[in-house]
Amino acid sequence: MDISGEQQIDAPRERVWEALNDPEILRQCITGCESLEKISDDEMKAEVLAKFGPVKAKFKAKISIEDQIPPASCRLVGEGQGGVAGFAKGAAVITLHESDGGTRLEYKADMQVGGKIAQIGSRLVSGTTNKIVGEFFEKFPTLL
Amino acid sequence: MTDNNRGIGEAVVRREDSRFLQGRGQYTDDMNLAGQLFACIVRSQHAHATINSIDGSAAMAMDGVVSVLTHEDFAAYGGVPCGWGVNNKDGSPMAEPKHPILAEGVARHVGDPVAVVIAESPIIARNAAEHVQVSYSELPAVVSMQQALDASAKPIHGDTESNLCFDWELGDREAVDQAIAGAHHVTKLELINNRLVPNAMEPRCAIGDYNSATGDHTLYTTSQNPHVIRLLMGAFVLQIPEHKLRVVSPDVGGGFGSKIYHYAEEAIVTVAAMKLGKPVKWTSDRTEAFISDAHGRDHITTVELALDREGNFLALRESTHANMGAYLSTFAPAVPTYLHSTLLAGQYRTPVIYAEVKAVFTNTVVVDAYRGAGRPEASYLVERVVETAAREMGIDPVELRRKNFIKSFPHDTPVALTYDSGDYAATLDQAMIASDYAGFEARRAEAKQRGKLRGIGIACYVEACGVAPSNIAGALGARAGLYEAATIRVNPTGSISVLTGSHSHGQGHETTFSQLVADKLGIDYDSIDVVHGDTNRIPFGMGTYGSRSLAVGGTAIVNAVDKIIAKGKKIAAHLLEASEADIEFENGEFRVAGTDKMKPFAEIALTAYVPHNFPLEELEPGLEETAFYDPKNFTFPAGTYVCEVEIDPDTGTTEIVSFHASDDFGRIINPMIVEGQVHGGLVQGIGQALLEGCVYDTDSGQLISGSYMDYTMPRADDVPSFSVDTCVTECTHNPLGVKGCGEAGAIGAPPAVMNAIIDALSDYNVRHLDMPATPNKIWSIIHKASAAAA
């Protein structure tokens, strides 16, 4: 499943980059995120309570941040384990462009789900994901 | 003669329904044994992955968890066996990879059992299963058969050369090639027989119990054939001798084939009960059923039919790929071969036929027999290609069929079967009248005025029931016999226990078999009890599948009744001081021919058990007889189905506005039960044609139609009120003249529905459409055509 889009943010690139690396801001922007910590410069771990249709589970996720070119782009690779609910994994390329005095954030992600989420909720995954992404960008600018 | 005889031909209300409708049935999950533990199975979430490690320590640490079992705990036992071997074209045996009880280092499909948690309650077991840490390294998954056979694809099993299970053929290739090359017309179709998930109403369940003092094992399981499970699991998996293993299949809520097979869970609970010294129960839920019950169908086929100028069939050629799934289920190899290609003659005199079938391993759930098992796939391709040929040649599809019908019996087909009896014109004629075929064009025109696209489709199917005889089946790869056994136990006061090796899981055997015995003995229907589903109560049995229970199991019963009558005559002759040759038995009375001297059946029974006046020197006391019956041939039910549909062009929705079935099932014992069986089969066939489709994600191998949100089961409002009728030609090689009716609906309905849909879409130049014919597919066709026209 491919998810891509872009978002205009009224803040300079450096500030957006900084915020995207701030675990506290990220935690507040991700719906259902119970904890998010940075283990190293290029690794984070998180616990997210997510609901895909009838399947609700706490996902323990590990995210690594690759190909970092501050403040222009990076690639996030993650995998979340939701126990018997299944798993989700994916990668996203995030690019920040200077635009109209602010920043245009482009994202292009590829996600896969497995186990019960795929079996029961696969049709709902893209809807749920789009909702989480939408909520992220609604919240994100307000915390800058 | 009793007033309450209820013999052959009466529409007796099913006696089992009284307990089912009152919630008084006794299903496996209704049983709870003292001290029972509960198993939850940890299943692979990946379609294909190496299992690096399994850590059950966190689960074991939880309160109430008793054990966590992995492959090592089953290392001493055999794998899940396959019951039918098929040979390749060159005579070499098929690839038969190991099928471990729990995955051994590699998981090969989503749902492959990896570990088992056993706990004091089902909830604890389920919660603890979440804490079993399995470390996987994902491997590429192969889902499509083309992908699996690609030269670059790695075999999913370490012990096979490729993902090809076998490459099998039947028929005279050269003759068929020649006939096709020289034919006036050849119709070629490529079609997919969609993969189905069985969805019996009762999910599978198994309870293992072990008595350490005696060494006796008992397995309670949702099986269509408890003796076969005892054989497969006892002899091949766990090495438990028959006398130490009792298998009980109590009330079972539907099987449709999916409960024929020996499943790993049965061995798991049996071994766990022995290891832990307590009974262990496992109950599948619906989600688990989708990824662990054997699926059905899943063929990709190219079929060619060659015809001469007048429309006579000259030859038929089939090339099929059949998906086996990740392992070989019990009867999987037989389904696309001996239960499929042998039916390619259909109702027609096609002189030469050639079939080649490649069976393929993929990272999907195993595929095995499902209501019809190979025959729906055969009937679908034959009836679709015949219909298409008629349209291409401008011949009326009914007349093309009629012209090519087999008209004399017995008939040897070019694909190994000999049809013993039938009258295909009779069922066709009956169906034409009942469905008012002649009046269709007026109905089409009327529907058009309402903006609806109306179509009519027919299918003339033939099927083969009761795989037989055992020696031929054995020569073709069956690893078991295909007879049936029955015991008639006449109790001292004249009531009767019928012990049958057939198993009823919705078929109404308790009613039908009682009618048989009541009819033969002329006694009260209510004095007869039918006992099935317990290896300790029934001498032997091969179970219920392939519409075999009446033709094979019923014949074993009447043969045992004949032995009872023969012995009764000896007893009667003694009591009546007559010669045995002079004793006649009729209407429940043993009579000296031509006199009024007689003894009722009950008195003979009592005499047998209280043998005060009894020829003890010549005859044993007691009245109990067993018969094993091995049929000489399959039986060949056949019929014509007519389906009328209306499509709403705005939504692509298909409504089945009428459906008529004319079947020839041979002699009918209980017409109401037969009608119910036909209804059920038709609904499943319509489900396959319009609604059901099992879908795997082609990249990841995840099952994405894994619940009722994405897998559409037919419901009452998806089907019309059926019109069902029968014609009778008796089977010539069993004494009852019966043929079997359980699968016909699922065999004949899909092509009838699809032919009707193609007919309804005739303005849109649609030659073929794969099942399920969803509104989306149909709307897209209409929409594209309208867009092109605009």
Tell me what you see in this structure.
- The complex is a heterodimer of chains A (about 140) and B (about 800).
- Chain A has a single domain, classed as START domain (Alpha-D-Glucose-1,6-Bisphosphate, Chain A, domain 4, 2-Layer Sandwich).
- With about 140 residues, chain A is α+β, with helices and mostly antiparallel strands.
- The model of chain A has no long low-confidence stretch (mean pLDDT about 90).
- Chain A has helices spanning about 15-20, 25-30, 115-140; strands at about 1-10, 35-40, 45-50, 55-70, 75-80, 85-100, 100-115.
- In chain A, β5 (about 75-80) and β6 form a beta hairpin.
- Chain A has a 7-stranded antiparallel sheet with strand order 1-7-6-5-4-3-2.
- By secondary structure, chain B is α+β, with helices and mostly antiparallel strands.
- Chain B folds into 3 domains: about 15-25 and about 485-630, Aldehyde oxidase/xanthine dehydrogenase, molybdopterin binding domain (Aldehyde Oxidoreductase, domain 4), CATH 3.30.365.10; about 30-140 and about 200-255 and about 260-285, Aldehyde oxidase/xanthine dehydrogenase, a/b hammerhead (Aldehyde Oxidoreductase, domain 3, Alpha-Beta Complex), CATH 3.90.1170; about 375-465 and about 635-790, Aldehyde oxidase/xanthine dehydrogenase, molybdopterin binding domain (Aldehyde Oxidoreductase, domain 4, 2-Layer Sandwich).
- Chain B has 19 helices and 28 strands.
- In chain B, the strands form 7 sheets. Chain B has a 7-stranded mixed sheet. Chain B has a 5-stranded mixed sheet with strand order 7-15-14-13-8, sandwiched between helices.
- In chain B, α9 (about 375-395) runs parallel beside α18 (about 745-760), α14 (about 510-520) packs parallel to α15 (about 550-575) and α17 packs across α18.
- Chain B starts with 15 loop residues before the first helix and ends with a helix.
- The model of chain B has no long low-confidence stretch (mean pLDDT about 95).
- The interface between A and B is medium-sized, with 17 and 19 residues.
